């Protein structure tokens, strides 16, 4: 009996060890799970990643993907992590975030760090329904109407707003300034609307001018034809001319 119990415990230990080794082998190099303050954490900091790992445990609460080389966040990149509370994507090379990249995280996520990346412009729909505090500082932002709408949509992390600086702008004098400072005096979306309205007016005026030009040409052409016809009638014998004139008058009437 003692031997049986010993063998059973040994077998269980081997199975557990094999399971752990298999799980570890499935993780990308430099990534490992842990537990911090009672929360299940998955760390991939400085792991030389070029994309979001696919084999992240779906019960993860805190995910660290900082200090890698990830350039792009595709749609549904985190859809299998319904319990995620914190997501750190700082210090990567992210230039593009597809709409729907954070789909499925709206209910639980309360912290999203996208600081120190290469973001120039992001649609406001990217963060739709997210309740998380978002850090967007230290990115080469283009200050325009789209960024203005984005800032009004997201809930910025405390102390991060000053780090959202205009690396470029639709108005040169704003380059190098904090975006929140700029929009205190400038409404980018109103300027854009005025520019669009002016362009529409110019286009409508162009079409109107073309129509008027065509009408003027048409009237002048008809007048020229009528003049030539009258001159032709005058050159005819009197009886035939009167008949032709009557016919012409009847036709005009």
TrEMBL record:
GO terms for cellular component: membrane. Keywords: Leucine-rich repeat, Membrane, Repeat, Signal, Transmembrane, Transmembrane helix. Its main location: membrane. The chain crosses the membrane at residues 198-219. It is a single-pass membrane protein. InterPro entries: Leu-rich_rpt, Leu-rich_rpt_typical-subtyp, LRR_dom_sf. It comes from the Eukaryota. PROSITE patterns: LRR (PS51450). It is found in: Membrane. Residues 1-26 form the signal peptide. The keyword NADP does not apply. It holds the Pfam family LRR_1. Belongs to the LRRC3 family. This is Leucine-rich repeat-containing protein 3B. It comes from Nipponia nippon. The lineage of its organism: Eukaryota, Metazoa, Chordata, Craniata, Vertebrata.
């Amino acid at each position: 009996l003692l031997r049986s119990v010993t063998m059973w415990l040994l077998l269980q230990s081997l199975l557990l060890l094999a399971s752990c080794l298999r799980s570890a082998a499935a993780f990308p190099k430099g990534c490992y799970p842990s537990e911090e303050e009672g929360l299940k954490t998955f760390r991939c900091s400085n792991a030389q990643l070029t994309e979001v790992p696919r084999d992240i445990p779906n019960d993860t609460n805190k995910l660290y993907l900082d200090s890698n080389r990830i350039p792009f966040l595709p749609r549904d990149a985190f859809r299998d992590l319904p319990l995620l509370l914190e997501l750190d994507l700082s210090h990567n090379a992210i230039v593009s975030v597809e709409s729907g990249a954070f789909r499925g995280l709206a209910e639980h996520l309360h912290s999203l760090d996208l600081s120190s990346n290469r973001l120039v412009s992001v649609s406001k729909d990217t963060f739709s329904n997210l309740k998380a505090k978002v850090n967007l500082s230290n990115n080469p932002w283009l200050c325009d109407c789209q960024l203005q709408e984005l800032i009004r949509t997201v809930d910025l992390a405390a102390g991060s707003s000053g780090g959202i600086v205009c690396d470029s702008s639709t108005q040169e004098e704003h380059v190098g300034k904090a975006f929140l400072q700029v929009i205190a005096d400038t409404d980018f979306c109103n300027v854009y609307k005025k520019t669009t309205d002016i362009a529409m007016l110019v286009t409508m005026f162009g079409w109107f001018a073309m129509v008027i030009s065509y009408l003027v040409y048409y009237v002048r052409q008809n007048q020229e034809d009528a003049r030539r016809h009258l001159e032709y009638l005058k050159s005819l014998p009197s009886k035939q001319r009167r008949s032709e004139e009557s016919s012409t008058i009847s036709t005009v009437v």
